């Protein structure tokens, strides 16, 4: 019964079965090496299946000796295997191969995932270092921005102060222009006075000519008197005395004529000196106007340069905010500002020395003017006294009836009348120093304006 139930297998003729040949034909691959990153561990069931598969493969791979072939065939006859069990074994083998391939793929995927994860860790660490460096840089830039904001606030305050000073300078320039107009009016008044003095000089020349004609008439009268004295012997003593008096008066007239001529020459010299001083003053006024225009143009150019420097400073602030490389430019700008400050300070010192010299000259001129005014007052008082005395002498001489006595007061009146008239040009000579006063005032005002503008420019350069 048992034998009938057994299935007989075909003879193998010393060969292995077909399923054994198929299994031996397939190459067996060793298990995958463990990676350092760690792979997925195999299940216990899969491990047991692999071990059983190894055992079967070992039994298949070992050669069968010839003695045992018959015994093996007898075993095959004794233990027949159905086709269904062989197909299940083949299917299990195929599943095992598929599982091994899947395990290899999983191992590769895990290796790639571990490498990518390691790269991500490295990139994350680099990004973290970059973020820390950027945070430090941002903190440093915030501190620099705060400092720059403080500097900008200080600079805005300085700009406000400079604007107020500029307004004050403009006000002072307006005042100086008003003073210049006043000085021009004074100059016109002085020119009118010069014309008046010239007219007075012409009148004095006419009086000198009249006096010369009077001298000629007096000489004719003297001859007539001599003829009358010859005719009149009785009045010889009186005529001789009168002649002596007339001679003395003639000598006085000659002396007064010489004095008047000398005074006239002095007056002409003074007039030439006044004209020369007037020309010099006019030339100095034009020169000072040119200097003032140059200084105004220089101040305008410096203002334009200040505006340009402010724009450059704003651009530099922007560049410094974008990139922190501004220390070298800052040092160069500071050096330029220091050099400009030293140059302006030297110019200011020179201008201060010039102002001090001009002030000393002005004080000397003021002292000369005071002394001239005092002497003018004294001479005017003396001239008034002389005029009163001449008026009294004229009144007494008019009361005398004789011709000779009436002619003599005319001779006496001439020197007395000449004295106050000749004192007018002397007064003019004494009045000449005040003509220098407007010129000196104009010079001092212009120098003051120049020094103030230089001082303001130096302060502006210091602030920038």
Automatic annotation (TrEMBL):
Basic and acidic residues: compositionally biased ranges: 424-443
Q: Does the keyword rRNA processing apply?
A: no
- Which parts form a coiled-coil structure per UniProt? 89-214, 261-298
Cite the entry's keywords alphabetically: Coiled coil
Q: According to the UniProt record, where is the region Disordered?
A: 378-464
Presence of the UniProt keyword Lyase in the record: no
- Stretches of Polar residues bias are at 393-409, 453-464
Quote the protein name from its UniProt record: Coiled-coil domain containing 62
């Amino acid at each position: 019964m048992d034998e009938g139930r057994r299935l007989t297998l075909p003879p193998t003729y010393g060969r292995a079965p077909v399923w054994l040949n198929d299994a031996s034909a397939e190459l067996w691959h060793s298990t995958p090496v463990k990676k350092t990153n760690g792979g997925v561990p195999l299940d216990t069931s899969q491990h047991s299946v692999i071990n059983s598969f190894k055992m079967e493969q070992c039994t298949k791979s070992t050669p069968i000796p010839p003695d045992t072939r018959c015994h093996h065939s007898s075993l095959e006859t004794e233990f027949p295997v159905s086709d269904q069990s062989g197909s299940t074994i083949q299917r299990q083998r195929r599943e095992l191969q598929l599982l091994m391939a899947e395990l290899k793929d999983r191992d590769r995927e895990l290796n790639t995932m571990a490498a990518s994860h390691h790269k991500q860790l490295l990139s994350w660490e680099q990004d973290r270092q970059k973020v820390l460096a950027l945070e430090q840089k941002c903190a440093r830039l915030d501190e620099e921005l705060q400092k720059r904001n403080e500097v900008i606030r200080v600079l805005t305050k300085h700009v406000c102060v400079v604007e107020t000073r500029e307004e004050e300078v403009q006000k002072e320039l307006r005042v100086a222009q008003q003073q210049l107009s006043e000085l021009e009016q004074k100059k016109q008044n002085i020119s009118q006075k010069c014309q008046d003095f010239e007219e007075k000089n012409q009148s004095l020349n006419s009086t000198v000519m009249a006096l010369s004609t009077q001298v000629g008439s007096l000489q004719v009268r003297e001859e007539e008197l001599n003829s009358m004295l010859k005719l009149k012997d009785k009045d010889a003593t009186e005529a001789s005395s009168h002649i002596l008096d007339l001679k003395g008066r003639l000598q006085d007239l000659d002396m007064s004529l010489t004095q008047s001529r000398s005074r006239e020459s002095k007056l002409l010299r003074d007039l030439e000196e006044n004209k020369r001083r007037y020309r010099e003053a006019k030339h100095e006024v034009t020169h000072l106007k040119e200097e003032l225009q140059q200084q105004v143009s220089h101040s305008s150019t410096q203002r334009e340069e200040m505006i340009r420097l402010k724009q450059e400073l704003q651009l530099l602030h922007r560049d410094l905010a974008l990139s922190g490389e501004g220390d070298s430019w800052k040092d160069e700008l500071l050096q330029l500002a220091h050099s400009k400050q030293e140059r302006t300070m030297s110019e200011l010192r020179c201008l201060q020395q010039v102002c001090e010299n001009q002030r000393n000259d002005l004080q000397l001129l003021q002292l000369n003017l005071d002394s001239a005014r005092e002497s003018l007052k004294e001479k005017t008082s003396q001239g008034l006294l002389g005029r009163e005395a001449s008026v009294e002498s004229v009144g007494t001489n008019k009361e005398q009836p004789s011709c000779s006595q009436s002619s003599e007061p005319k001779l006496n009146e001439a020197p007395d009348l000449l004295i106050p008239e000749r004192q007018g040009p002397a007064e003019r000579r004494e009045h000449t120093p005040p003509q220098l006063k407007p010129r000196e005032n104009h010079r001092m005002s212009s120098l003051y304006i120049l020094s103030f503008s230089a001082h303001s420019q130096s302060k502006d350069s210091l602030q920038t």
